[in-house]
Amino acid sequence: MTKTLTTLAAMLASVAFAGAASACDMTLRSSDTHPDGYPTVEAVKAMAKEVEAKTDGRICIEVYPSAQLGEEKDTIEQTQLGVIDMVRASFGTFNDIVPETQLFSLPYLFRSVEHQHHVLDGPIGAEVGKAFESHDLVQLANYDSGSRSFYNSKHPIKSIADLQGMKFRVMQNDVFVDMMKALGANATPMPYGEVYSAIQTGVIDGAENNWPSYDSSGHYEVAKYYTLDQHLMVPELVAMSKMTWDKLSPEDQAVIKAAAKNSETLERKLWAEQEKKSEEKVVAAGVEVVSDIDKQPFIDAMKPVYDKYVTTAKAKDLVARIQATK
Hints:
This protein folds into 2 domains: 2-144 and 235-276, 3-Layer(aba) Sandwich (D-Maltodextrin-Binding Protein, domain 2), CATH 3.40.190.170; 148-233 and 279-324, Bacterial extracellular solute-binding protein, family 7 (D-Maltodextrin-Binding Protein, domain 2), CATH 3.40.190. It contains 13 helices and 11 strands. It has helices spanning 2-23, 39-54, 72-81, 113-120, 123-130, 174-182, 195-200, 211-216, 242-245, 250-284, 296-300, 303-309, 313-324, and strands spanning 26-31, 59-64, 86-90, 137-143, 148-152, 167-170, 186-189, 206-209, 225-232, 236-241, 288-290. It has a 5-stranded mixed beta sheet with strand order 2-1-3-10-4. A 4-stranded mixed beta sheet has the order 8-5-9-11. It has a two-stranded parallel sheet with strand order 6-7. Residues 1-21 have low confidence and may be disordered. Residues 1-23 form the signal peptide. It is found in: Periplasm. Keywords: Periplasm, Signal. InterPro entries: DctP_fam (IPR018389), TRAP_DctP (IPR004682), TRAP_DctP_sf (IPR038404).
């Protein structure tokens, strides 16, 4: 049954693609793993609408949400090869492809969302974006994906001392494991779908994520203490296949770049709205939020993590420039 449904979905997608292609001189396929209605999906749809309008219908962008074309890593590879034209993925998924993106997974790299925007929208963002081209990709837009913070079922976390010995689920990522160790807690990598029951049964004490994920997963039901420490802010990225990009005229490239920049503004607005809704929902459900935390001791505790992962002169210079950005 599953195979049959998958085949049917593929056929329907193919038919939809063929129908769109017949109405446009060029139809670009764009992949997103997030569901329809998600801020990143809606932003790329808005970009598509603007591109179609400004090219008088010559260029269309078909957005395929919910991982219809594959998971992030697979769709990035397909975009590099020109099999699909555009992809929305996390900076973290590009880490093994574009080395310059690796530093954006460092804890407490950004002081705030505003600081992150200033970095991404300035010369550093342009420099990192340029690095994608040698990997057959063209960076179009940087999107928000919120900040990850700690939540648990035991007690409010107001200082590093409150983390000592606690067990937290983290993604299977060496940087995250080392971050927890530096804070005196125990990292427990596990699939996201197992977190709710693991907290409920006491296998782990908590996890870490952004407001919308904390809300939609239902984790707030079993972990009532949320500490807004914002230890990680990994942006999202929209990239185009360089093979596709090179087929476009300079005028059409300019149209797509401008539409992508406008979609960036929209996505950040939609994300902020979604965060606010999720925060209001979990607070109304009785979650205790610690928002006045002193982050400096947490930042200072990351020295061994930075010593381990920021080793080259180029990486050290980039981190210093990011931290110096106002």
